[in-house]
Amino acid sequence: MTGTPATESSPTADGTSAERTSARSAWEDPRPRDLVGIGIGPFNLSLAALADGVHGGLDAAFYDQRPHFSWHPGLLIEGTTLQVPFLADLVTLADPSSPWSFLSYLRSRERLFPFYFAEKFHIHRAEYDAYCRWVSDSLPSLHFGHQIDAVRWNPERDVFEVDFTQLDSQGEVEALGRTHARNVVLGVGTEPYVPDALRPLTDDPTVPVIHSADYLAHRDRLLTAGHVTVIGSGQSGAEVFLDLLRSRPAGSEGLHWLARTEAFAPMEYSKLGLEHFTPDYSRYFHALPQETRDLLLPRQWQLHKGIDAGTISAIHEELYRRSLHGGWPDAVLTPGVLVRTAGRVATTKVELHLDHVQQGTRTRLTTDAVVLATGYRERPLGRMLAGLDPYLRHDSAGRPRIDEEFRMVLDPSVTGSLYVQNTGTHAHGVGVPDLGLAAWRSAVILNAVTGREPYPMPRRTAFTSFGLERHREPVIPGQGRELTPLARGV
After folding, report:
1. What is the mean pLDDT of residues 199-209?
2. Are strands 349-356 and 17-19 parallel, antiparallel or unpaired?
3. pLDDT tier at 26 (50, 70, 90 boundaries)?
4. Residues 6+ apart with CB under 8 A from 65
5. What number of other Cβ atoms are within 10 A of residue 322's Cβ?
């Protein structure tokens, strides 16, 4: 990176202050970029791909501390597919002509005809990961091996200061640096969630207690364990359970599948149900009162936390196949169960203390290994954004306020914009982590950043009109006015 030496003190990754001049190089780029993206997952990769196509150019840079792009490597189980169609790639739903579409990737690999004859609408996860890596290897605006330490607002220059640590291939500190930006987009994503009752068990390697995010790295060890318990009723839990079931000997499966939900429920996948993942619904949800949004979100869990019907069918078919010659497979599936506490037994096993909510009963389960398919939580941003604390505006629950264009609401004295990706379900609803809205959200952000419309937005995206709007109708003698449904889907 070119620039001038940075000599002042500034926050580091652990929140402390340290002189930025040292034996290592320390550089500051004085030119303010139009856009700096923090994190390079699918959402900021979508933003980078669409930014690459902005007419007239956009000075953008994206940073990630990992050495290269990687998308859920622990869950690229053989045969698993995306739950969204291939059209939900990084760019197509905003710009079908983009050179970074999935179809362009297939053409570059001379695989268009095989894909055409395969007649697949939902592609393999491993193929999606390979497609994203193809894009990430080609865009010059991406900088891997860069850990972002702090983001601050410089009121004298009207720019954001973004401090980073450059890492070598081994993850060791190579240099310190700083860049400036008029706009920043946070795309740091989520992190695996481990319930408090099980968190102490994950620190001891003697008995495998792992999150499903790391499943493939531990798969061989899990297959040799005498008994394995999978906890969690979502898609990841179902896929892990199915893979273990298929890979363990008939009659000696030694599997438990526990879920807190009342059933192993299918994901809502009806055509009109899917319209909750449209820009129309996102705008409708954002316009609701915050109290209404907070009540609505928990009730919508089956829109995005259920199990694909095909996976449920495959699990039942495998269980049924193993019962063809009489007897039942050694596999127990129990919903409605809460893991109250857990502990180790003789250093080689785990004992789970279970509550059955509906029965009001308790029991204990001893197992040799546990896979926690307990989902993900938004990464905390407090340390990175500590310098922006005085400028951030929050809602009544202490969460960042986010406007309709995915911009964090800041003090009016801040002339730059701070956007968010894959965070803020409290503001925009269940579609926030959905890959199908990636290109649309990236286009919204780029339109706002440029102050024009390089990516025209569709006026309507759903057949459903999610709310009512008052329209002034001509007054007919003897009749009053009435509410009429929206002509558009917002």
Report:
1. 84
2. unpaired
3. low
4. 144, 145, 146, 147, 148, 167
5. 19
